[in-house]
Amino acid sequence: MMRWQALLFDLDGTLVDTAPDLVGAVQDLARERNLPVPAFATLRRMASHGAPGLLGAAFDIGPADPDYAQLRLDFLRLYRARAHRDSVLFPGIPEILRYLSKEQTPWAIVTNKSEELTHDLLATLALPYPPAIVVGGDTTEQPKPSPLPVQYALRHLGIHAEAAVFLGDDRRDIEAGRAAGCCAWAAAWGYWQELDPPSTWGANAVLADVDDLRARLLAN
Description:
- By secondary structure, the protein is α/β, with parallel strands linked by helices.
- It is built from nine helices and eight strands.
- α1 (19-32) crosses α4 (68-82).
- The relative contact order is 0.18.
């Protein structure tokens, strides 16, 4: 029997490869505004940082800029218009979810994506085993790296933090998981940046790929 009583996933870059639609929406926005279209490879690494990271990397603009608010609204409009058409579960994730189902182990999503967009995305995916709870960036008073979203999920599951693993592809995920008292694993298949590699995040383990995740779950 698996040691862990619950597995909590970050969403973008950990559970689902959403970069094709997130970056695609930025590219659509550049075309709409007759601006140079940024390369996919340049922006993929920013996909876990949402609109601020993507728009900042593409257009050198930040939330304090007077034009940012409208740019963000246009980005979200174009992102919704894509209807998550190119977003897919990372290879091997369906098998992990089926294994959790076999073990009767609940799993959860803890993301900084809004609840609305998260549920819209999940509705397009063929999940073999649904999450017990979805915690979005607007579910609690503060998003990750605050531990509040992780703690919220754990309370819903009725599981002590030390019995759960939180898996994410960003430093904020590791900080949130550790602050909540969970074992925190870094998903190195995600969207991290070369200047901030997973080995520096203070994770309990860095997982190279989903096969590594499977091996660690089976070992426990």
